[in-house]
């Protein structure tokens, strides 16, 4: 398995390590519930160095990235970030990702760890008619996420002007003597920042954050807490909620599809928009302590109408919640059932997100 630059740090913190997309990653340290509550009430730090960084540069960068992505890269100013999907010709989601506008002719794509190689091959296959250079620099960068309502108050102790960053923007900084790029982004539903640094600088920055964060009661958090936080905030997880068999319109991501420009998959998505989606992601509040899991079947009045894509017990809300891909006729307020180990338990369709924390607005 691959290891991030913080592998030894995780072992020293007695993390429970697991295989995630071919990476040996920390599932938890003190405990998943404690780590979720640290994110929600205070501040926590995550190792997300397994994420991929793909760079595109050259005079056709804007046109090429706009062709690859459903969202509008051309509308960004230098220093801004956008969330987007990258689709195939059938409108299926190859990946959901962040795109950073580093310069007029330079972009960085931050992709899901499990998709890095696939995304890189796909991008290269589409680049031949554009004057661009595409490079996978994932092995050069570490990535640390600082998340929670007090994350800004904490980080500005070491990077004084970092809290002037608007949401979904980035800039260059020096932290603990190391050059880095910090963005005001994250995937937890709370305010937060992500530090991109050189691979070999990552352990020093991580250790300093934890040491200096003792006065803030900062906690390291693992994949378990990250997954619960993103689900509470109703963010999609690639491979669970979305994949190449899912379109952005079905996933409730129509806001990142800009039909006024050309992009791969536009024709199929236009047809789907005109005819209407047949299935879509909905949020379920489970009226039971049992937890729906990925792949469990969803029923309405005895008829199967979908499947759970993600489910968990939410420590923040004190109840079980789930995302499910269901028949598009299902409405908010409908009562459904989820089959959990042979028993059907009641669930109610609710408005998303399940939880909205300190996260800033675009």
The fold-level CATH name of the domain at 7-48 and 139-232 is Gyrase A, domain 2
Question: Which architecture of the domain at 7-48 and 139-232 does the CATH hierarchy give at level 2?
Answer: 2-Layer Sandwich
Inertia-based shape: globular
User: What is the terminal-to-terminal distance?
Assistant: 37 Å
Query: Whole-number radius of gyration?
Result: 20 Å
CATH class of the domain at 7-48 and 139-232: Alpha Beta
Record the strand order, biggest sheet: 10-11-12-9-3-13
Tally of alpha and pi helices: 8
Task: Characterize the largest beta sheet: strand count, sense, and whether it forms a barrel.
Answer: 6 strands, mixed
Number of DSSP-assigned strands: 19
Q: How much helicity do the residues have?
A: 10-25%
The overall pLDDT, averaged over residues, is: 97
CATH fourth-tier homologous superfamily of the domain at 7-48 and 139-232 = Probable tRNA modification gtpase trme, domain 1
Description of the structure:
It is built from eight helices and 19 strands. A hairpin with an 8-residue loop joins strand 11 (178-183) and strand 12. The model has no long low-confidence stretch (mean pLDDT 97). It has helices at 7-12, 32-41, 61-68, 116-126, 151-155, 202-212, 223-232, 266-275; strands at 16-20, 23-28, 44-47, 52-57, 81-87, 93-103, 106-111, 133-136, 141-147, 170-175, 178-183, 192-198, 219-221, 279-286, 297-300, 303-314, 319-327, 335-340, 343-350. The protein has 362 residues and is α+β, with helices and mostly antiparallel strands. Among the domains are: 7-48 and 139-232, Gyrase A, domain 2 (2-Layer Sandwich); 278-350, Aminomethyltransferase beta-barrel domains (Elongation Factor Tu (Ef-tu), domain 3). The strands form four sheets. It has a six-stranded mixed sheet, with helices on both faces. The chain has a six-stranded antiparallel barrel with strand order 14-17-16-15-18-19. Helix 2 (32-41) crosses helix 7.
């Amino acid at each position: 398995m691959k290891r991030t630059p913080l592998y030894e740090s995780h072992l020293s913190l007695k993390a429970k390590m697991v295989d995630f997309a071919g990476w040996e990653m920390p599932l938890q340290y003190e405990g998943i519930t404690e780590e979720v509550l640290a994110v929600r009430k205070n501040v926590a730090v995550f190792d997300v160095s397994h994420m991929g960084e793909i760079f595109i540069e050259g005079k056709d960068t804007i046109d090429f990235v706009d062709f690859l992505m459903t969202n509008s890269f051309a509308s960004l100013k230098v220093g801004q970030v956008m969330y987007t999907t990258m689709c195939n010709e059938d409108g299926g989601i190859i990946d959901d990702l962040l795109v950073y506008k580093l310069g007029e002719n330079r972009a960085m794509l931050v992709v899901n760890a499990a998709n890095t190689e696939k995304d890189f091959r796909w991008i290269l296959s589409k680049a031949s008619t554009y004057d661009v250079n595409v490079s996978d620099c994932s092995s050069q960068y570490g990535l640390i996420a600082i998340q929670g309502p007090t994350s800004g108050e904490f980080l500005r102790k070491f990077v004084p002007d970092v809290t002037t960053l608007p949401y979904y923007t980035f800039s260059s900084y020096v932290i603990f003597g190391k050059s880095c790029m910090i963005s005001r982004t994250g995937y937890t539903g709370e305010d937060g920042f992500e530090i991109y640094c050189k691979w070999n600088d990552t352990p020093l920055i991580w250790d300093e954050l934890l040491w200096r964060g003792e006065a803030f009661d900062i906690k390291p958090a693992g994949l378990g807490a990250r997954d619960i936080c993103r689900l509470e905030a109703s963010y999609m997880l690639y491979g669970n909620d979305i994949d190449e068999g899912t379109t952005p319109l079905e996933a409730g991501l129509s806001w990142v599809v800009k039909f006024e420009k050309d992009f791969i998959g536009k024709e199929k998505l236009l047809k789907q928009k005109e005819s209407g989606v047949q299935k879509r992601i909905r949020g379920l509040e489970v009226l039971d302590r049992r937890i729906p899991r990925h792949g469990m079947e969803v029923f309405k009045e005895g008829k199967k109408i979908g499947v759970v894509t993600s489910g968990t017990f939410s420590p923040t809300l004190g109840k079980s919640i789930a995302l499910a891909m269901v028949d598009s006729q299902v409405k908010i307020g409908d009562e459904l059932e989820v089959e959990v180990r042979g028993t059907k338990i009641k669930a109610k369709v609710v408005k998303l997100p399940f939880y909205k924390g300190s996260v800033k607005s675009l």
